[in-house]
Amino acid sequence: MDSGQPNLEAFLAEADKALGSGGVNRSEETLRRYGENTLPGGDRLPAAVVYPGSTADVQAIVRAANVHRVPLYPISTGNNIGLGSRSSNATGQVVVDLGRRMNRILEIDETLAYAVVEPGVSYQAMYDELVRRGNRLMLDVTSGPPQGGMLGNALDKGAGYTPYFDHFGFACGMEVVLPTGEILRTGDGALDSTDISNWHTSKYSFGPILDGLFAQSNYGIVTRMGIWLLPRPPAIRSFHFAYDNDDDLEEIIDLCRPLKLSNFVPTLFRVTNDLYLCGSEGESAEYRTSAGRRSISDEGRRALREKHGVGAWTVSGAFYGASDAAIEPMIQRVRSHFGQSGKARYISHEEATEIAPLQVAINAFSGVPSLGELGLLKWRPGGGNSWFLPGTPMVGKVANDFQRLCRGIYEEHGLDYTVMNVCAARFCRGLHVLSFNREDEEERERAGSCYRKMAEEVARRGVFVGRSPVDFQEFHMSQTIPSFRGACASIKQALDPNGILAPGRYGIHAG
Ligand SMILES: Cc1cc2nc3c(=O)[nH]c(=O)nc-3n(C[C@H](O)[C@H](O)[C@H](O)COP(=O)(O)OP(=O)(O)OC[C@H]3O[C@@H](n4cnc5c(N)ncnc54)[C@H](O)[C@@H]3O)c2cc1C
Fold first, then answer.
1. Angstrom distance (rounded) from CA 78 to CA 85
2. Where is the FAD-binding PCMH-type domain (predicted)?
């Protein structure tokens, strides 16, 4: 009988029956591993982990969770490092690990250049499959963990660096298990037919666009997604410009903007500061001398720049074309564009292949997953890593004011300002890395307080974050207008009346 109280044992017995052998795990070791993350707020142990093997399994779990009032937290590959890893937004939820058994590439259509994937398909797995098929198609990758998943990343509004950088924007057609256990198909998939030929090719057909409901929310479990791919260009040539001064950011942003507004440069620009590039190449030489209390000195930064041949800022982008010779005139044009003030030092594609952190950029522009940037997790000992992800309009003065503001807040907190501005035409996302010693309680608190202070200050200037670590989702929701919170709560109430799906994720509760 339904008492309205959670009954974990009854839920797990039902899940065990539905999923069969190995479908439920609640060993101490497993709970510890799934609770671990790199954030300041500490680990969040789940009550159990379940491993569905099919959409029907997901439906069975969701229905049982409704009967027994048990909260579920879905993950795809669980490589959300710096945003929560595999841990749920609250302790005691049951993690639904979709990636372990639902990891098939369901389809690759080489004519229309798209793939259809289950949640466990990683960037590496898709890359390997495309290479096996002759390397005619290219996927947009992140520069994060190659084992990260295409579907989970798109749902969290992740992004890459090629013309298909917007992973949610280039996803088309989803299958979703709603919190009641019903299956929803979005886009043309909503047609009542068994043969839906446009499901993964047409984004906006009849009716409201429901896909957006499932990004950064807790309104459903996505079990299938179409993802668009690019034809692999015959030649890819990168270009890079190093600048000496922190305030050169103003000039850089104003130079990048017209090249993106006209789409002359097809990739996004990676405008990366010295520590973002050099921080992946080893631990801070100054961390132990200041016991982690001070930001790295200007001399320390200069020494790193000289060692690795990069600037206070390094701008990277790439062209695609029929051959290296066909691309050369475009490289010359971009060189004269950035050469105007005489401040930029040009680094050629060939030179960049010898500089490990710039090779990461080349890989990102080429749709090749790589491990290089994960070195950032070792810049300070103790494994602490959180992302702070605001953005600014593509106006040099505005972006530079934000740079000064955030650099100052890092320094107040004795942390090292580490950022990459990823620039599109009108907007750039500032990927800020907070590296801290997670084993040192005082430093952990400083990292949390640095995040909050920056989030408050940028919000005061009208800027919001594009994604949030689990520690700060409730906080960010509290920064929204009441009608936004109210609408999110009403949708939650309508779709998930028992509140069983990741209650509190992104600050969304039934209301
Ligand atoms: C050094 C470094 C560099 C990085 N660079 C980038 C980068 O360039 N671009 C970028 O976007 N990210 C980057 N990241 C962040 C991150 O690692 C990736 O975004 C990662 O791929 C996301 O994790 P995932 O794919 O494993 O998703 P998951 O962890 O599986 O999912 C993310 C969240 O989405 C929700 N979710 C997942 N699957 C489902 C589902 N099927 N249904 C409903 N909800 C679901 C869950 O709540 C989950 O917590 C970087 C991280 C590091 C450490």
1. 6
2. 42-232
